[in-house]
């Protein structure tokens, strides 16, 4: 049933196909009827604040793209390519051996798209969330990422 949610097509609105040559790509479009309950449950189990749980309700779509390459420079170039697509870098946080970059697309004060890039040495994970966010929402997500182990943060729930 969920097979149609996973593909190896390298296309994304924020990446150029030429950049992806030689890289292994996996795309996952997460069904919201699965994602929201799993995220809320995980946050409750971790004792997170009601504000973080409420933030989950603002998400209307989630897409995850993993990119692997033996060429670390290629991964670095792909990670910085989002600027060409009208994403505005907000902040980059170092967490363990990873760089976590928060970029947004916004009109005025309304943030319609949040793109989180988790950059390892030879692997890159994009978490692309659409919804209606505020600057305060993004600030809470950044604080959450600073306080959690990144391996735990990017998974929804193993249970």
From TrEMBL:
Pfam families: DUF4252
Protein's name according to its UniProt entry: DUF4252 domain-containing protein
Species annotation: Bergeyella porcorum
């Amino acid at each position: 049933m969920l097979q149609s949610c996973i593909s190896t097509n390298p296309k994304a609105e924020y990446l150029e196909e030429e950049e992806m040559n030689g890289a292994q790509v996996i795309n996952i479009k997460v069904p919201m009827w699965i994602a929201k309950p799993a995220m809320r449950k995980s946050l409750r189990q971790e004792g997170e604040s009601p504000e973080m749980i409420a933030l989950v309700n603002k998400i209307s779509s989630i897409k995850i793209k993993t990119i692997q390459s033996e060429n670390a420079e290629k991964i670095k170039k792909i990670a910085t390519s989002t600027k060409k697509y009208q994403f505005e870098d907000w902040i980059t946080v170092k967490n363990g051996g990873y760089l976590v970059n928060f970029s947004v697309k916004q009109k005025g004060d309304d943030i319609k798209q949040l793109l989180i890039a988790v950059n390892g040495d030879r692997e890159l994970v994009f978490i692309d969330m659409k919804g209606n966010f505020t600057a305060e929402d993004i600030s809470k997500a950044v604080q959450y990422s600073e306080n959690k182990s990144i391996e735990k943060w990017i998974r929804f729930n193993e249970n």
